[in-house]
Design goal:
By secondary structure, the chain is α/β, with parallel strands linked by helices. It folds into two domains: about 160 residues, Rossmann fold, CATH 3.40.50.720; about 130 residues, N-(1-d-carboxylethyl)-l-norvaline Dehydrogenase, domain 2, CATH 1.10.1040. Helix content is about 45%, strand content about 15%. The strands form two sheets. The chain has a six-stranded parallel sheet, with helices on both faces. Strands 7-8-9 form a three-stranded mixed sheet. The longest helix has 29 residues. The chain is globular, with a radius of gyration of 20 Å.
């Protein structure tokens, strides 16, 4: 197989659209589909073919890349695409689907003789647009060369976690990583809310931890979004974070452990969504610290 491929991208939201653009920039032929076609249309200006159906999108594809909302969505869309898929086509499944769903997706791949790669990614809008995602991947070593050009186009590096994508080793690692990301995001929101409640300038806190082991670039990045009212457009939306948080809690329950912080974090995110912040960046979990009637006064005008 040559380094120039025909790649079908199914799902062109925040992450999928960025991946598709980087694939076109790398010289690949991209065929894109999204349930809401308007979200895929801008990709035509980058040279992508925008399909009306999943089956149309995968015609002639060497690699199919799915970046959909959840495992159920990925299963439904690939089932729609299946009649047009050739046996032996590589399927790079990058949706954060959860451990159980990965098994179902791998089963669908076997049914249609597809080469399945469990390949979720670490990163949000900015690294996705820059092609700097970290790809967590599991799949057969004998077929990795076939998908390497795709993974190289969308990511800065690929971390291989296993030979069998059906085992979900990459998705397991993704849930562990996301548990830390979501905990840090919720903690940042609570720090800002407590600062406001106690009349403390947040900058005093950042100055106090500057350069030490408690300092963290991610804390500052997410805090800046809240402090400067830059929660839209989202790098990673509250609604999607809720889905991931629930997958993490469910994974813990299935494996006999309690994840109290993850459960509380999921509740905070859900509360922020109920208050109208679902489409904003997940840093908007900050608002969950306030009663709905206090929302108007909860945005601070302090900046870095």
């Amino acid at each position: 197989m040559t380094d120039t491929l025909t790649v079908s991208v199914l799902g062109t939201g925040i992450m999928g659209a960025a991946m598709a653009r980087n694939l076109t920039r790398a010289g690949h032929t991209v065929r894109a589909w999204n349930r809401t076609r308007d979200k895929a249309e801008p990709l035509a200006a980058d040279g992508a073919y925008v399909a009306d159906t999943p089956a149309d999108a995968v015609r002639g594809a060497d690699v199919v890349l799915t970046m959909l909302y959840d495992g159920a969505a990925a299963l439904e869309v690939v089932r729609q695409a299946a009649p047009a898929l050739r046996p032996g086509t590589a399927w790079v499944q990058s949706t954060t689907a959860g451990i159980e769903a990965v098994g179902e997706l791998a089963g669908l791949a076997r049914e249609h003789e597809l080469v399945f790669f469990d390949a979720p990614v670490l990163g949000t809008r900015q690294p996705a647009e820059a092609g700097q995602l970290i790809v967590l991947a599991a799949g057969p070593s004998r077929s990795r060369e076939a998908v390497a050009p795709v993974l190289d186009a969308i990511g800065a590096r690929t971390v291989w976690t296993g030979e069998d994508g059906a085992e979900g080793s990459a998705s397991r690692l993704k849930l562990v990583a996301n548990s830390w990301v979501l905990a840090a995001t919720n903690a940042a929101g609570e720090v800002l809310a407590l600062s406001q409640a106690l009349g403390v300038d947040p900058q005093s806190f950042f100055d106090a931890i500057a350069g030490g082991p408690l300092d963290m670039g991610y804390l500052r990045t997410k805090s800046e979004l809240v402090l400067n009212d830059r929660l839209s457009p989202a790098s990673f939306a509250v609604t999607t974070a809720i889905k991931d948080a629930r997958l993490i809690v469910e994974a813990g329950q299935r494996h006999g452990i309690r994840l109290d912080l993850a459960a509380a974090g999921a509740e905070r995110l859900a509360r922020a969504a109920a208050q109208g912040h679902g489409d904003e960046d997940m840093a908007a979990a900050y608002f969950a610290s306030f009663d709905e009637e206090d929302q108007a006064g909860s945005r601070t005008d302090q900046t870095f």
